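WARN no homologs supplied; continuing
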Amino acid sequence: MAAPHIHILLCTHNGGPHLADQLESYGAQAHGDWSLWVSDDASTDDTRATIARFADRHPGRQVRLFDGPALGPAANYLSLLLRPEIPDGWVAFSDQDDVWLPHKLKHGLAEMGARGAQVYASRTILTDAHLTRIGPSVVHRRGPSFSNALVQNILAGNTLILDPDAFARLRAMTAAALQEGIDPPHHDWWIYLAMSGAGLPIVNDMRPGLLYRQHATNSLGAHRGLRAGTARATLLKDRHYAGWLATNLAALSAASMYMTPPNRTLAEAFGAMRQVKGGAARLAELRRLGLKRQSWRGDLVLAGLALTGRL
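OK structure emitted
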């Protein structure tokens, strides 16, 4: 596969002291053919000035800055990927506070070519706010599938690369959902749902491609450790998870014309299962549908949610 041009999609909001590191890591990529498209969500710090300085230091590089909708990270990313100014082509999604390792883009493209994938994600190396390494992100050994995407996101949004066909499909599915007034709550989970629902091949690479900075203002942070587990338990208790599932299913329904028939049927059956009366009946239907998370512990939690009507 010839080395393609990649559109880097970056969303920012008060990037503070970490944005410059992220920007400089683009310039250090072994794959040098890229442009940068930024959607800034009403930053009040020096985020825009930092981006302008970066653009000035790279006069031969296309760097475009847009105003975001100021409705949160998910809405910002979804609005950016629908920008008509961004041509069709390859895209890589980026957070504002990580550091890409030099091999990230080149290796991701090579893996996609070798495995015949249209969507790429990878593990990350978790760090503290000062980039001191903590360890690698979790391994999702069951791998990506639509039956998993319906109940869990395993694709790190800051590692995603999509080929032109996948990007075009994602744009169409996102536009269909937004036109119905449905706003997916998490852009990376939505990408996992949309791409797997459309039947596109996905690779979730074991090799980390970036340093994933953990700090107080992370939107969600990594899915690891006691703090992450406590946060997830709170979301389940407060029924946030059930609300996310409902919105995701509504978004898929709006974009169902782009899904494979079996996946469309599975999504509809999951929606119907959530309305079944009686915990035992819901659990039996959950098992019949084959919906699973990435671990037996996760499956137990899912079963408990079905039994107690929290799905």
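The chain has a mean pLDDT of 94.
OK
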